[in-house]
């Protein structure tokens, strides 16, 4: 055990020495490793393509459901906002964390990855999780998953839509 600790300490010492010698510094928590500024993501993003499968086995798409993401606040890589969704009356309901419903607004928190393109969002108090990436400054693809009694999986292609504010 003592040998493993010595080896670990030696590796850390060599790594720190190399970083010091080459002038490398760890990036700050809100700075991308590339040094490029983080993009502004605030605004409304609406799904132009979507496919979803619900626990009751109904499926929805952009003709039978609507999905949008409202990024209300951004503090560096950290995000807060609301997910807006509704399902057509011909399809089964969704779930908003407390009851079955056809329409909901659910809060989320999220983080932009160090690569500046990847994104992870989690809903609260619901347990939905969205993961994806930015395709460019105004388009985003997300995959949604929620396990449990009201399981859902979905994928979305969203575009920035500032004109949807208030919907």
List keywords for this structure.
single chain; 167 residues; mainly beta; Lipocalin; eight-stranded antiparallel barrel; two-stranded antiparallel sheet; 49% strand; disordered C terminus
Structure description:
With 167 residues, this protein is mostly beta strands. Helices cover 13% and strands 49% of the residues. Strands 1-3-4-7-8-9-10-11 form an 8-stranded antiparallel beta barrel. Strands 5-6 form a two-stranded antiparallel sheet. It is globular. The C terminus is likely disordered.
Count of DSSP H/I helices: 1
CATH topology: Lipocalin
Rg over CA atoms, rounded to whole Å, is: 21 Å
Oligomer: single chain
Give me the CATH architecture, please.
Beta Barrel
What ranges have pLDDT less than 50 throughout 5 or more consecutive residues? 7-30, 163-167
Helical content (DSSP H or I, runs of 4+): 10-25%
Silhouette:
globular
Number of strands: 11
Separation of the first and last Cα atoms: 62 Å
Instruction: Outline the biggest β-sheet.
Output: 8 strands, antiparallel, barrel
Could you name the CATH class? Mainly Beta
Summarize this structure briefly:
It is built from 1 helix and 11 strands, in the order αβββββββββββ.
């Amino acid at each position: 055990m003592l040998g493993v600790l010595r080896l670990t300490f030696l590796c850390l010492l060599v790594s720190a020495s190399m970083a010091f010698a080459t002038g490398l510094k760890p990036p700050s928590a809100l700075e991308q490793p590339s040094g490029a500024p983080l993009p502004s993501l605030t605004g409304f993003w609406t799904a132009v393509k979507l496919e979803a499968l619900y626990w009751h086995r109904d499926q929805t798409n952009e003709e039978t459901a609507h999905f949008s993401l409202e990024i209300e606040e951004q503090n560096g890589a950290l995000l807060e906002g609301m997910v807006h969704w509704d399902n057509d009356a011909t399809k089964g309901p969704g779930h908003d964390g407390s009851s079955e419903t056809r329409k909901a607004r659910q809060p989320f928190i999220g983080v932009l990855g160090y690569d500046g393109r990847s994104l992870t969002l989690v809903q609260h108090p619901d347990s939905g999780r969205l993961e994806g990436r930015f395709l460019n400054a105004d388009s985003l693809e997300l995959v949604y998953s929620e396990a449990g009694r009201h399981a859902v999986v979905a994928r979305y292609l969203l575009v920035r839509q500032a004109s949807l504010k208030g919907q």
